[in-house]
Amino acid sequence: MIDIEEFEQKLPALEEKPAEQCSVEQTQQKSEFEGPILEGERNKTLTSLAGSMRRRGMSENAILAALLEENLRRCSPPLEDAEVKQIAASVAKYAPSNGGNATGTVDDSKNKNQATMLVDLAEKAELFHSADGDTYATIDIDGHYETWPMRSKWFRRWLIGQFWKKYKKAPGSQAAQDALRVLASKAIYDGPEESVRVRLAMYNGAAWLDLANADW
Fold this sequence. Notes:
This protein has 2 domains: 32-99, no CATH class; 121-216, no CATH class.
């Protein structure tokens, strides 16, 4: 018999690579993906991130979208967009490693880039951002709509679940992280700005309260 609580505690680990696939390089790069990027380290860190994404076969457009989001969210102060575009363009001149597909297209071949596949699977989600730059996705869950922060574990699990449903395998943890960067950038630069509330909100001169029900 399955212990549900124990299973839920172990679920996040299922999204990670097996222990034997971890490397010293991943440990060294961990700091690149967390925390603020201060002046003097911005170009170096973004270039390193771009190189990591290029090696995994991401296209220039996908790399640029991810870098723009990282720049806006983590760099203090952010670089000019033109400088970020130059980083993406310079790194994209190098060929991907390990047979990566840099076309940015999605097909059913072995070498398809998983981050691009994940981004395509999120097309059904409505992406937007708040006035303070936080990113959100509204998704259809069993006939009702739910809105989640894009950096929440819930949206990540939904996205990985969509990948599993279509391809019957789990994406790599780094591919999921790359995809989330691209999607966050799309929410900021392509999505509308919306006001976000929890249960209680003012709209058209009236106060609206979500009473919820057994379904949601």
